[in-house]
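Hey, can you fold this one?
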Amino acid sequence: MTKRVLIFGATGTVGAGALLECLDHPEIGEVLCIVRRPTGRSHSKLREIIHGDFLDYASIAADLRDIDGCFWAVGTRSSGLSEQDYIRVEHDYVVAAARALHKQNPQCCFVFGSGTGADETENSRQLWARVKGRAENAVLGMGFKQALIFRPGTIAPRRGIKHNVPMYGLAARLAPLMRPFGMATSTEEIGRAFIAAVLGKGAEHPEKVRLGSAEINTLAKLA
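Sure. Predicted structure:
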């Protein structure tokens, strides 16, 4: 039986990469994307819901039923935002979505796209690390049958995808040099790792819930 997956952030670099991999994979039967603007893609597996309020999902609760796996890839930079606005995007949005989804599908696999350096102790002096860690803890404590945190380092875009942030694009050029040290991955591998998690592969170590680049790459090979 094919799986039905949900992607948040499919217009971003990482989310778009996951979307392409899911559309291509034979064991993924439907991809639902909840977005604020259209992805611009067309596929027989793809269904999009344009949704403006990432804090309230009551109006689309029925669409959240029968989801086997969800990938959260919504994010923003801390620079240029107030602390309150940053917390709303990086913490409040994912918590609201996870709660709404858990209410409908507590048995699903929820994968939260975080980042290297996130601080699960929530004590970091860096706002982004502290908030990301707080969001990770909230997702892990939600009660899903399986919840994973992806903490990629440098991400190399593939399949025509480009980084929306120029600085990340420059860093991605170093990915081949960083890969041998387990510090780099790609949009393809992140997408495939998500699929592998949804398919229940690589679950022999359930205590390992935070995966860095090297572990993401290993999991991706199982998809």
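The first helix runs from residue 13 to 24. Let me know if you want another pass with a different chain boundary.
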